[in-house]
Design brief:
- It contains 8 helices and no strands.
- It is mainly alpha-helical.
- It is globular and about 50 Å long.
- The two termini are 20 Å apart.
Length: 193
């Protein structure tokens, strides 16, 4: 791990303020480990806090996506799983397999999407989200037909949200990969559950 979790009692005041803002959101996340017993946040928060000049703006972008989402939850989680799978981001998949399950996505769909496969039984919204995320995370221009389908399903504002969300979770996945953030465990001083 290249950017280990940062215990809050070791932070300068400006970083502690960023940590506390992140912790408010993290405290609402369920079913996966996001914080150590000493209060240090794990996952993408660790590199954001270690490098706050870049992590602060990245957090503001992520927080906006979390707090103001209008996309249907299942479509959103499909797109996040597609993004995590495309980048092979272990923590992203660890976290969002759980979030997707909480949102009501079936175990079979979660497993298929996390494995990089497009399930045949996706709803129309899930299909549109999958296709947009798959095209963008492949590094290709978004095909006009895929964009038009997303517009038809979600409308212009939610399609924009979907695109920005895939870009945002691409950033998170890259941070997680660059800083070798894995599934929480011994490296973070946590017991595996």
């Amino acid at each position: 791990m290249r950017a280990p979790p940062f215990p809050p009692d070791q932070m300068p005041p400006d970083v502690r303020a960023l940590h506390d803002d992140m912790a408010k959101v993290a405290d609402h996340l369920k079913d996966y480990v996001i914080k150590r017993e000493d209060g240090a946040l794990v996952g993408p928060f660790a590199p954001m806090l270690r490098f706050p000049k870049f992590g602060g703006p990245a957090w503001a972008y992520t927080k906006e996506l979390l707090e103001n989402s209008k996309l249907p939850k299942l479509a959103k989680e499909v797109a996040i799983l597609v993004t995590g799978a495309a980048f092979d981001s272990r923590f992203e998949l660890y976290a969002h397999e759980r979030v997707a399950g909480q949102a009501g996505l079936s175990d079979a769909k979660i497993a298929a999407v996390a494995a990089g496969q497009r399930p045949a039984d996706l709803t129309e919204g899930e299909q549109a989200a999958y296709d947009v995320a798959a095209a963008l995370t492949a590094g290709k221009q978004l095909p006009e037909s895929t964009y038009q389908r997303a517009l038809k399903v979600f409308g212009e504002d939610q399609t924009a949200e979907l695109i920005y969300m895939v870009a945002g979770y691409g950033l998170i996945s890259m941070l997680l990969n660059a800083y070798e953030v894995s599934i929480p465990g011994r490296e973070e001083g946590l017991a595996r559950g």
